[in-house]
Amino acid sequence: MSGDPTPHSVLEDIVVTAPVDGVAVVELHGDHDRLTADELETLLRELTLENPLVVVDVTDARFIDSSFLHSLVNADRHAREADNRFVLQLGTGPAVRKTLEVSGLLEVLTCVSTREDALTPASPRSSTGGL
Questions:
Q1: How confident is the model over 79-98, as pLDDT tens digits?
Q2: Cβ atoms of 79 and 46 closer than 8 Å
Q3: Domains of the chain, with CATH numbers?
């Protein structure tokens, strides 16, 4: 991906940007379930292998299910295997947050509350404090 900040529509409710070289930001809007799972899985796998940092922003997501959670776990694994970073940016959506809490992924993934924190090079793993 180039440093082009122009959004590229991947799926109707997924927007990928590259704010700087080597960083991909995936903004998720709306609902994410088994209907988008395969496309999202493929997208995240490619991005985590190609970019030193991938941020998945669920701030504007309304709903996520277990297939989405599976995609996050796989993306984190792919990033680690490539010595890259995967960061989950959380918003305040209660349904999405509750799903992530119940699943235990907030304790496993590197999670932040702001884009600035997500782009900070030394984000500690599972930095969920204060979220």
A1: 999 999 999 999 767 889 99
A2: no
A3: 8-119 (3.30.750.24)
